[in-house]
Amino acid sequence: MGPKSKSIIELGSQDLTVEYMERFRDLALRFLKGYGDEKPQELIMFSARAQPYQYSSLDDLRKEIGRIPDDASYFYYTITYPSGERCSLYLDPDRPAKLVVEGDRDMNRHLPDQFKLLFPQGGKRYVVHGRWGIFMIWAIVIVTASAFLTAYSLLSHPDPYLIVWVLFISSLLGIYLSLVKAKEMTPANTISLGRRRKRPLLDLFLHFITIALGIISVILVMLFVEYNL
User: Fold this and answer.
1) Rounded Cα distance, 188 and 146, in Å
2) Is residue 94 within 8 Å of residue 222, measured between CB atoms?
3) CA gap 45, 55 in Å, rounded
4) What is the SS3 assignment for 39?
């Protein structure tokens, strides 16, 4: 057995599913098989709703799917041989995913490209619940409201009172969404354990429709009050 070495592969942001975990396991077992005939050990650990979960194999995890909360995070999956060779997958919800391969130098020298292509290219996403995240959501609501007010002003004579009132209501709506949705938007990594994966673009579109309908409703109410009272 030669000197040990470690290779680290940055995977970027990922949407991890059980199917991708199986691909990782199959490739790791196939790659490490040539470096030891012993039976490997699997270990899966993650947290969900502040509760730790631990499994000794991916098959054991599959048996529990449906009873695990959907907001799993801080995921760790490792396959280890008694001789020391190891493949590990790390996912932190706020940081890029990472794949680590440990073994003798000869093994790492021939690290196959399949590991680098194991997962699809992750998007360049960032958490928005940091320093400026709340203001970002609030600004999006205000910009949306301003766009509707601009369209209203072009189609009719603008009422300054209505404009001020719509912007005020939009500001309140923006603050509410900032506090409620900030931690849900564009995490670095997401994990789907058997459930249907969330579609960020669809969620974003639905949020926009909700905001737009709210602003349009305020404008219609103000127009009704203006012309009927």
Assistant:
1) 30
2) no
3) 7
4) coil
Model pLDDT for residues 136-186, shown as the tens digit of each residue: 778 878 888 888 778 777 777 767 777 787 778 778 877 777 776 666 666
Cα–Cα distance for residue pair 216/192, rounded to 1 Å: 35
If you search the block for the tokens 């012993």, which residue do you land on? 38
Rounded to whole angstroms, the Cα distance separating 128 from 134 reads 7
* pTM exceeding the 0.70 threshold for the entire prediction: no
Contacts of 52 (CB under 8 A, 6+ apart): 45, 46
User: CB-based contacts of 40: which residues, under 8 Å, 6+ apart?
Assistant: 29, 32, 79, 80, 81
Q: Which residue has the higher pLDDT, 105 or 135?
A: 135
- State the Cα–Cα distance between residues 58 and 18, nearest whole angstrom: 8
